[in-house]
Amino acid sequence: ANVVITDREQVYPYLKHVLKDNLKDKDNVKYSVKILDWTRDLHKFPQKYDIILGADVIYVEEVFDALLATLQHLSHDETKIYLSCKIRYDRDTRFLDMVQKHYTLQEVLHDKDKDIKIFLCKKIKILS
């Protein structure tokens, strides 16, 4: 599998360094690290992905529309999107409500000790 790992520009150098250290003995792991800003430059990611993992991405309400647009841009009809998050505020639930307009949303894990939930999202198929 080819893995693309993304984060904001501010985190990119640190992320690249950490991955290099952690994967230095894993020659069989193919990965690339890229900067992804949900509010721009989606054209730099023309590929659709089979699996998308989003960890702690639900945090700033002002970019919820951009986050959802990014998920839509990167996914195809069969993509599985896993979102790992804490539901801290009402706004977090509002984002999940936005997601449910386009994707099914299934809670697949709830770590009660850490209060972290993982949701599986699959694109809603419209029958014609």
From TrEMBL:
Listed transmembrane segments: none
Q: Which GO terms describe its cellular component?
A: cytosol; protein-containing complex
List the InterPro entries: Methyltransf_16, SAM-dependent_MTases_sf
Q: What is this protein called?
A: Uncharacterized protein
- What is the protein's species of origin? Mytilus galloprovincialis (Mediterranean mussel)
